[in-house]
Records
---
Amino acid sequence: MSLDQFLTRLDQLQSDAESAFTSASDAAALEEARVTFLGAKKGQLKDIQKMLGGIEKADKPAAGAKLNAVKSAINAAFEDAQQNLSGGDDSGADPTFDPTLPGTRPSLGHIHPITQTISHLTEIMGRMGFEVAEGPEVEDPWHNFVALNIPEDHPARDPLDNFYLATAKDPSGKSSVSAGDEGSQLLRSQTSTVQIRVMKQVEPPIRIISLGRVYRPDAPDATHFPMFHQMEGLLVDTNVTMANLKTVLRVFANNYLGEDVEIRFRPSFFPFTEPSVEVDFLWNGTWIEFGGAGMIDPNVFAAVGYDPEKVSGFAFGLGVERLCMRRHGITDIRDLYSGDLRFLKQF
Ligand code: DAH
């Protein structure tokens, strides 16, 4: 065999082997190709190597050099193909990677304790037939005050006690809003607004709860925060009595706080209920106030277009944080909103 022929066969072998390796689609096919070209006994490279003996002595160095070059090229092509098949990650070859070490688990978040509480309260009230209603957090004074029988001169409408918004009416951004300004929107100060929205929309009988954020400019301390949550309840039907109200709240308290929790009503005043009460639960030997309640004031029914002679109803508003804090032994409301994972991870 001439040197030229020998070199040509080697080139041919290299290109055959390279294309066989790159087209091998799995480990078995690659192994088959490896045996064909690099096999120690019958591999094609071995066959050609044997032909080296028939080359002219003077041509042998050139032939040998070419043979070695082709051999390493084919070996390299095989290794490349092998790496590609294993995802390009030759992890076994990396001395710093120990596949027997345990992996790093991705850390998962979880539902915030207040959201958990909201689900729990919704579930308890749902068993008594109360459906969830929602309302906007940015409200107009009609829903937040007027329809709820809160007159213009009522202290609850004071700009200092509410987050009024600097809207288009007040482009300067200055707080030129007066308490009676019907046009200025505000962050709702109570979820009682949802009572109005629901009654404007549907006819009795009504049995809803609404859980959500309310806003008041209070300085934060252990029991106050400028944003907190309320659970509003509203039931409208015929011949509704205060006994119905008390039963619903007692069953609620027994489900959420414990079978032995007792309930107490103290006379109070809210513009939208008559009579009005403060709601206390007896918890571990102390009476604790959880919110307000009462029978819907006829003026509220009139504001939404109901006939106060025909329908009656009760409403209540309880503090969600207060309930959650009592149940879980949380002593500082600010912990709920600090975003501190050491605190949040406990729930
Ligand atoms: N909206 C009252 C507040 O934020 C709580 C309240 C009292 C709600 C009596 C009611 C109610 O529905 O009947 O202080």
---
Amino acid sequence: MSQSKLFGTNGIRGTVNKELTPEMAAKAGGAIGTFFGKKNLLVGHDARTSGPMFSRALIAGLTAAGCKVLFAGMAPTPALQFAIKNHKMGGGVIITASHNPPEYNGIKVVWSDGIEISHEQENEIENIYFQNKEKLAEWNQLGYMREISEINDEYVQAVKKQVNVAKIAQKHFHVVIDGANSVGGITGPVLIRDLGCKISTLNANIDGTFPGRMPEPRPENLQELAQIVKALGADLGVAFDGDADRSIFVDETGQIHMGDKTFGVVLKQFLLDNPNSEVVTPVSSSTLIKDIAETYKGKLVWTKVGSVTVSQKMKEVNAKLGGEENGGVFYGPHQSVRDGAMTTALILNIMARTAKKLSELVADQPQYFIEKGKTECTEDKKPKVLEKLLEQSKGMNINTLDGVKIWFPDKSVILVRPSGTEPAYRMYAEAKTPTRAKQLIKEYTEKLEKILKTI
Ligand code: MG
């Protein structure tokens, strides 16, 4: 981490005792506590081995700054976010590195509405941290920590309120849950059992070394789940990421469906129930989402890529649904943040209401083929490349919220955007045939290389 930068695209994140140390967590606690100004804060962590260590260091800093801390221990990120709102806290801090490997951890700061703080607010904390402006309390004004144990249960009860439990229970679904050896294994099985389903579990034992699989729910990490769903003849498989705010589903045939498709399933039902509603999604989402929104009379609001941006936009336009291609679904009636357990309950609710299997719900959707690409580009050249690319895209149907997205008349699409984490441009193409998607990646890789030679 550089001298002036603490927060990256996903809060504070780094490798344990190398990029992120307990000393830093304690100092960050002092800065975060100063930022909040002696408010009541909730703190919790995911299943990583370093979670308790970082929580305690952070809480030392928070209480030194005079904050009163409720310590929830191990819980999914969405359960902690829900608890912050539900217990009317001034805010909260979550120790998690989400989908990163076990040697990572991170610090995510959340506002009183359960949504992560804005980048402007992160800058305020950074200033306090780097300029040593922490306001530490006098000995008789120190904050304190109290433990709270019931938040996971409150969260499960709240999720259940959003769906028709009796209707789901009538179907006696068999669900296989892959908890990634992390916090999804705490609330996922309890919720799905409470919905009257038969459950089988995989990687549901808590183990912060993540021995079962890596916590990113990508297809290559979910092969075992897919095989087990098929072998057991189960109705559904669900895999959570490391902090259980995202969920990826497997249908009864063992097919893994990426987030766009399952968000599409949720979107269609939501628009049938709430026509003419606003729905928020980043520009990286599939054309599938645009098609479904148009067919079922939804108003799509595009944002930059990033879950915080989606949450903030939902608040701004008062939208009740948001979704990302990575398996993040934001269901406003519960909370406007990504929530893996809520998404699972919604999918089961739709399967029960429509009497359709997940494979059938997905087969109803328009089909697109996806190709991805990457071109190296140093940070200093990124803005110039975008400028040139925009010049060359004049007169085309484009969106420039995040990089450039171009819609072609044959319904194919390319998104070219500077990576937030690497010195590179990322490309994402979608088309009605695999050949066209491949051709678009090739064409734009060449275009970028040409531009890079001229600047
Ligand atoms: Mg996550």
---
Amino acid sequence: MTKKVMDYKQPALKGTLTVPGDKSISHRSVMFGAIAEGKTTVSGFLLGEDCLSTIDCFKKLGVTIDVDGTNVTIESNGIDAWKEPTEVLYTGNSGTTTRLMMGILSGTNLHTVMTGDASIGKRPMRRVADPLRQMGAQIAGRENGQFTPLAIQGTQLEAMDYTMPVASAQVKSAILLAGLRANGTMIVREKEVSRDHTERMLRQFGARVDVVDGVVSFEGGQKLTATHVNVPGDISSAAFFLVAGAIAPKSEIVLENVGVNETRAGIIEVLQQMGANLEVKIDDETAAEPTATLTIRSSQLQGTTIGGAIIPTLIDEIPILALLATQANGKTIIRDAEELKVKETDRITAVVDELKKLGANIEATDDGMIIEGPTRLHGGKLRTYGDHRIGMMAAVAALITDGAVEIDDAECIAVSYPTFFDHVDAVLK
Ligand code: S3P
């Protein structure tokens, strides 16, 4: 772990950035390319540690993957040509890799063992293992499949009609990917719609999928056909600069090629509700994953309430939205966000404890937090808990604090945004 001291002295932020590729879509591009027969090409791939873990797992399954900058090529003869790995599949810090792989591996004819880092070892996996078991999957792990290491004996799966108890794209995607190898008609019902990159990509790879009013259905046993995937910039990475530009004085930051899929773009709605000076220029609405240029300028902000159906569309942005709320006039209430407790770390506790160290007026609740603003923040020594998004929240806070902010672990940020500090430097001038 490398400490980092950030003493930025409240600069104006100016510049144009292209944030790295979307993490969720990058993972899926490799997974789909490995399942499909033929040669899949990917551009704009995120070279973050999480996505590199996904590549590493598929290499161990015998899939040929070539990385050339942000262009990735995946060559596969389909799932039935994968080989049984002699080694444990290591998923690092990545919940998406671990959970989606559970769904994919359950329907193979292979025995596999998966494990990840200390954070993955604490994250709940029964939310995926239990529905997969209803389809016939054979999954073993600590506490009856709740925790890694997990051992999966692939088998023939049966389709099911499943109603999601939690709004989770990872759970939904694991089940949908298992459904590709199942007999019968798969139906997955969501009360609140979580990110739909898997559904979109299934279609891109030639599968016939229906989505009507939060109900996804398709025939099991469909084959995927290799294609090209263009990964847009990650709105969850752009979020840090959207907030930085809004709260730093005399600032203007332009973010190009940001993915604005409506199941991911809740932060745009919240910024607008809070009165942020934000311009959204959509590039191409018809793309498989639409993109936009976002321009953010220093803003006078009002507190707001964030809860209900919007939560899954901005779940990863809540740490940075909490920092934003410390600079808004009045009270911001974040509720219905108990899922934060099972992210890379417990993000309710982490955000509240760390922002308090900088002088924020913030309290934890059972399902979120309440923030009273505006508060002038001071410097301090913060913990990241090894969580990339807590590390970046601390770095953005450092841009507006009186005095320096130190973080205990700067490296964890490479999980999703390896060029983050280069981009901070680029807007500092
Ligand atoms: C992801 C889904 C979200 C999100 C995670 C990536 C995905 O998790 O927090 O960073 O790629 O499907 P849940 O689906 O568990 O909410």
